[in-house]
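Task: fold both queries, return tokens.
Query 1:
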Amino acid sequence: MRLASTRLIVADIKAMASFYEMVTGVSGQWLAPVFVEFVTSGATLAIGAAETVAFWAEGSSEPAANRTACIEFQVQDVDAEFERLRGKIECVCDVKTMPWGNRTFQFRDPEGNAISFYTTVTDEARKRFMSR
């Protein structure tokens, strides 16, 4: 089994696509007017407009309602990314090193979803990601 993507359901797909293009530097691939994907080397972030919920089951998802998941992007230099995005994002947590060996900062997208950028900084953390 392979985790193919994480999908967000959003109220304003154009604003969210612009935001993720700005923070990731990846161009969104519009597969339909109501669906865009950001394909990275590790995973895909899919974004569906609220109208796409009806394709599954009415009321099964709700835009801007997430408070449990965090979308994480591994970056080369987390400090440089923090400086690049300073003033452009709603920062939740400034750069710090976590007990599991990642140096990270957290922010929110325009609809309130938590996002972390991180760099591995300990040998143990680097080994975890080299084995994947």
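Query 1 returned. Query 2:
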Amino acid sequence: MKTRDRILLTSLELFNTEGEPNVTTVDIANELDISPGNLYYHFKGKEDIISALYEHFHEELSEILNAPIAKLLKPDDAWFYLYLVFDEIFKQRYFYRNLTDILQRYPAIDKKFRRLLEQKVRAAQAIAITLVEKGVLELQPHQLDRLCETVTMQVTFWLNYDMLRSKDLPQQLLIHQGVFQVMSMIAPHLTDTYRSFYDDCCALYESLIADLI
């Protein structure tokens, strides 16, 4: 692995475990057993490292959000699709857990992240519209818009809520919990034909709790 990639990988691990404000470039260099000068050869400072990490994350999540899955969606696909979104966010949990502070310190990232928020809303709308067309959900246009905004809010701030609750759940269960919470938001809008789908979601989540705790 190239030194630049090692720096990014190690930085991400340290940010996630220690919290980004608590990690310096010297900490990163020490963890890699390289000189600070070697690190600065690849990155001018921590701001450049965070920008590179965010750029990669932005591309990865955008690819998931823009995937054509909304055109092919069946009710059972919703859980898997949401898991992919939550899993990608979990990989960058340092960013989401310190979201406001990072966006204030890095205006360029703030601008890009606002666009990513719009992508989240549009992806939620595309999926909701498809499920309405397939008779899975029953939503009026104003309900659909509000639901998609609420889902986007849940996806964006789910990690902060978990951090405040301090439950220290296993990674997989934490991600599935986020998915289940979104499914619970959607459940009241299921049509009679698909009402049992939420029961299946509850059973799946309970089995995951039993397996992972």
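Both queries returned. Flag for query 2: The mean pLDDT is 91.
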